Amino acid sequence: xxxRKSPPQNRRGPKPSVEKADVFLNIPYDxxxxxxxxxxxxxxxxxxxxxxxxxxxxFSQRRLERIISLIASSRYSVxxxxxxxLDRTAPSTPRFxxxxxxxxxxxxxxANHSWIVCETVRRRINKSLSDLDGTDVYxxxxxxxxxxxELCNAFVxxxxxxxxxxxxxxYRILRSKCASILQNAGAKDPFNARVFLxxxxxxxxxxxxxxxx
Length: 213
What we know:
Largest sheet: 5 strands, parallel
Strand content: 5-15%
CATH topology: Rossmann fold
Structural class: alpha/beta
CATH class: Alpha Beta
Number of strands: 5
Strand order of the largest sheet: 2-1-3-4-5
CATH architecture: 3-Layer(aba) Sandwich
Distance between the termini: 34 Å
Low-confidence stretches: 1-16
Mean pLDDT: 88
Radius of gyration: 19 Å
Number of helices: 8
Shape: globular
């Protein structure tokens, strides 16, 4: 007996949508890090994830509570601890936000949450945060392709496996549309809630078009 076939209308129906996992992105917010912001958005989206960041936190909400909520609700988090230098604005001060948010992540102790640490310089984290000894640290070298390479290493078991070239295509799309997105949001830089969300939407659409499941 031949197998029964589904009615034609069922075969032509839309595919069910798949909920995308959130990835909390813990990075510095300044001009020198701009290209890597685009790289992280492009790369995370290419893997079929949704980037999340403290940039989204509205002024009406207490920042620390919202940070904890964002981390706790995310399936993954990426913590870039490469900004260890003193800033140029008096008084010269190192940036503590990134290691602080990593500490929150570890302290939450969510068994369903996985976190990764990225850096620019190999073995520097052995001095800057020696408590992470024994933890794999992903060294991107401060380059866009380096970020893509290390995301490939970190998410090697993910179902969707984009190539570095596909991630570069998404990155170029974001860069080409950045000026118009900034203009529409009335913003001067991409470290802005509206701009960040628009970039993520654009990256997700480009990834779904370029990268097969």
